[in-house]
Amino acid sequence: DTGVSQDPRHKITKRGQNVTFRCDPISEHNRLYWYRQTLGQGPEFLTYFQNEAQLEKSRLLSDRFSAERPKGSFSTLEIQRTEQGDSAMYLCASSFREGAEAFFGQGTRLTVV
Amino acid sequence: QKEVEQNSGPLSVPEGAIASLNCTYSDRVSQSFFWYRQYSGKSPELIMSIYSNGDKEDGRFTAQLNKASQYVSLLIRDSQPSDSATYLCAVRGFEDTGRRALTFGSGTRLQVQP
Hints:
Chain A contains no helices and eleven strands. Chain A has strands at residues 5-7, 10-13, 19-24, 31-37, 44-50, 53-57, 65-68, 75-79, 88-95, 103-104, 108-112. Chain B is globular and about 40 Å long. The interface between A and B is medium-sized, with 25 and 27 residues.
């Protein structure tokens, strides 16, 4: 399968714990996006990478969220001191070039209890 | 005003009918437009992309774009029960504005009745 891959698919964590999600984009795609989606809403933009550079970050994104993309390949999204409001589906997408179609991974569903 | 607006639905159509899904956007310099289908509990799946005014057809799907009216639509012909899903409209701004990411609407839920 050469699509976007996300790991884990599901994560249940206790409030206050840190969690880290991984995304492996389609191999020739150098643009990578993170989104968050809650029930009944469209995906909400979190951050964007072009190769290893983080070029855009949502103004709404808490300082508890951080993302990296070392060497411009896979990316990680870390949430520190999780809160119940962080419960959502975290989606990763990649695209080949500016303006091209973006393809999503299966998502990581986070539940904070 | 939301940047990308869609009627949440549900839009209910009988099997075999044409389903028409609409989307308006606020950023006049938006350049790229996409429709995604999302089944419950799954991630969005790309259906169509459209970049210039007019119609673009792909199988049973037709995307329509009118930049002057800031309006994009998706027509699904011969609707099938398997088309029942939430349809997300996504818009990407012009690169020079720094808005590289897709902005999504909240989606329209489509129900195709057998």
